[in-house]
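User: I'll paste a sequence; please echo it back and then give the predicted structure.

Assistant: Echoing your sequence first, then the prediction.
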Amino acid sequence: MAAAFTNGKSQGSNWSWLTSVSPEKPASGKLLIRVPPEIHGRALIEAQSMGKSLNQWATEALERAVMAEG
């Protein structure tokens, strides 16, 4: 899996390799990420301005990113 990730990264934003790679175990639906405080703050402001929780906003952002690559 690490090799596939490295190969995907070296191809820029081409994530087509993901369609042939399966996770080693099922995803739990929980995702903890670390971001700089400035990004966290901007994300909070954006979510609030859209009347959404940060979780809902981040889920939609991740979904858009995944769908754009697929």
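The CA atoms of residues 8 and 14 lie 7 Å apart. The radius of gyration is 15 Å.
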